[in-house]
Amino acid sequence: MGINALQMDARDNVVTCVKEVKRGEDVVYQEGASEVSLVAEEDIPYCHKVALADLAEGTEIIKYGESLGKLVAPVKKGHWVNDQNLKSVPRDYESELAGDDFVMQAKQSAGAPDLAPFSFWGYRRAEGRPGIRNHVLILPTCACGSECCRIVASQVRGAVNIVFNTGCSDVAANTAMSQKVLTGFACNPNVYGVVIIGLGCETVPHAALREKIQKMTSKPVVSFGIQDEGGTLKTIEKAVRAARDMAQQAGMQQKELFPASELLLGIECGGSDATSGIACNPAVGELSDILVDMGASAMMSESIEWIGGEHVLAKRAATPEIQREIIRVCEEYEKHLAGAGQDCRAGQPTPGNKAGGLSTLDEKSLGCIRKGGTRPIVEVLEQAVRPTKRGALVMDTAGYDISSVTSMAAAGCQVIIFTTGRGTPTGNAIVPVLKVTANARTYRCMEDNMDADLSAIVRGEKTYQQMGRELVDTIAATANGRLTKAEAFGFSDIAVDHVCRYV
Fold first, then answer.
1. How far is Cα 12 from Cα 62, in angstroms, rounded to an integer?
2. Residue 451 has what DSSP assignment?
3. Given this model, what pLDDT does residue 20 score?
4. Range 464-468 contact pairs with CB under 8 angstroms and sequence separation of 24 or more
5. I need a surface site. Which of 106, 169, 302, 345 has the fewest CB within 10 A?
6. Distance CA 99, CA 64 (A)
7. 480 near 378, Cβ under 8 Å?
8. What is the pLDDT of residue 501?
9. In this predicted structure, what is the pLDDT of residue 421?
10. For 436, phi and psi rounded to 5 degrees?
11. How far apart are CA 440 and CA 459, in angstroms?
């Protein structure tokens, strides 16, 4: 009947079914050069796991050659392993620190040394990397300015806006994070100029934000306060004129040819299922490795989704200091939530993740980190902080995809690739967000939102390495101006992580 399940590592005691398997049907998978089968003793849903042997309560479930957690009930051979009988186990972070004798020991992929670096047409920026878009950003300082920004952007071709739902009545730490995001958006290379609109009584007034941005960039920046200008209509009139002038200037800027090494790629996942870890994320990981080999940078985020796989990720650290940072980020994330009386394993995986076959945070994480590739990690960044090094990067962000996309856009990413199993419409106002899935059902159901179908990997028609190479062309096309599905819709999702973190 053909292969209908995948074994990710010879040490695994479960396989993942890539088709629905009914009770009494054979589960067939490849083990080395041989096809092996067992009988399903109950219905196994698409993307879910089946036990390869009789497993006692307390047995570690192994997938990717790593532990997903321990069984809280016995599972017989041919039976379904899921979130009801498998639970995550807290990490012993101290045991995962190698000390000063650490040596980078991650197994690196071959990449694509025969693939010539591509070039792209972009917009030169004085502060660093070129833009692949040339937006005029209409930027609110607070929630009270957001609607005004929306109206202004709707009146000016080439203008985009964000909806910002805070900016007032906040504690200092949250205000600081908001400012990092707002100034980061303004400084993103995809932005030509900025029109700021505030109310006038917000925590950080529009003039103060303007001055802050002007110290960071040579881009044109102007600001208006609704209270100062005499109300909404007068503010809109002045802001529209300013935005039109900027749009005219932006339209005069000529594109220049830049090498692939000038790209900073953000890598995100959301609405994950088992196809994410076994197919989609490995393909994007291959893309990341190829781009890094071309001299570009690739940034992975969502640190809660390192937990359970942090020991694997830490092996990619370029230095013992970076290795310790990776481990400590995960440890501190758990402590932060525990201090509020919360368990990170209670919110992760999400209900959608579980329905898609991800039983524990560990399983989700081990699949998630594969999208970051295999190259040495050269820097660990705080949220919304611009990198100082080139290569493979990780950013400590919340376990919420829109918040992570927001932070990576604020850090200067020109393009973001977003893997999904269950499907998501997420987009960003200033950075193209490419949605890719290896779940054929998701692609069929959400073709309006998906930019690439990687399900050939799951069907065994192509390898993740081959699809990674194809994604290089997709990135190149996007950098050269092809709109993503989210861009065509005009989606502009934003979420700013604050003291009480998204999990």
1. 5
2. S
3. 95
4. 464/279, 464/282, 464/283, 464/285, 464/286, 465/109, 465/110, 465/112, 465/283, 465/286, 467/283, 467/286, 468/112, 468/282, 468/283, 468/284, 468/285, 468/286, 468/287, 468/289, 468/290
5. 169
6. 25
7. no
8. 62
9. 95
10. -130, 145
11. 9
Token pair 């609607």 is found at 147
Q: Is residue 356 within 8 Å of 272, Cβ to Cβ?
A: yes
Instruction: Please answer whether residues 84 and 42 qualify as being in contact, where contact means their C-beta atoms are separated by less than 8 angstroms.
Output: no
SS3 at position 199: coil
Q: Are 213 and 194 in contact (CB under 8 A)?
A: yes
DSSP state of 253: P
Per-domain residue ranges of the chain = 5-87, 135-252, 262-489
Q: Is the dihedral of CA 110, 269, 367, 344 positive or negative?
A: positive
**What stretches in the chain show pLDDT beneath 70?**
1, 500-503
Residue labelled with tokens 């699809």: 467
**Which two structure tokens, joined as six digits, stand for 419?**
């893997």
Measure the N-to-C terminal CA separation of the chain; round to a whole number of Å: 42
Alpha helices in 382-461 (DSSP H): 401-410, 440-445
Domain covering 135-252 in this structure, CATH number:
3.40.50
Tell me whether the CATH fold assigned to 5-87 matches the one assigned to 135-252: no
Judged by DSSP in three states, 476 sits in: helix
Tokens 């269950």, residue located: 422
On whether the CB atoms of residues 365 and 308 are closer than 8 A, the answer is: yes
> Whose CA is closest to 117, among 339, 368, 239, 293?
293
Q: DSSP strand E in 217-369: where? A: 221-225, 256-259, 264-269, 297-300
Q: Would you state the pLDDT for residue 500?
A: 67
**3-state SS class at 379:** strand
> What's the rounded Cα separation, in Å, for the pair 486 and 471?
17
Class of domain 5-87: mainly beta
- Cα–Cα distance for residue pair 98/326, rounded to 1 Å: 12
Rg of the chain (C-alpha set): 24
Query: What are 24's two structure tokens?
Result: 């009494």
Share of the chain above pLDDT 90, in %: 86
Joined together, the tokens standing for residue 207 give: 């003039």
Q: Which amino acid is at 262?
A: E
d(CA 159, CA 246): 9
Positions of E strands within 387-455: 392-395, 415-419, 433-437, 452-453
Query: Tokens for 327?
Result: 């481990």
Which tokens sit at 40?
């399903």
CA–CA gap between residue 387 and residue 410 (Å, rounded)? 11
Q: What is the residue-wise DSSP string for 317-349?
A: BSSHHHHHHHHHHHHHHHHHHHHTT--HHHHSS
Task: Write down the number of H helices and E strands in the chain.
Answer: 16, 23
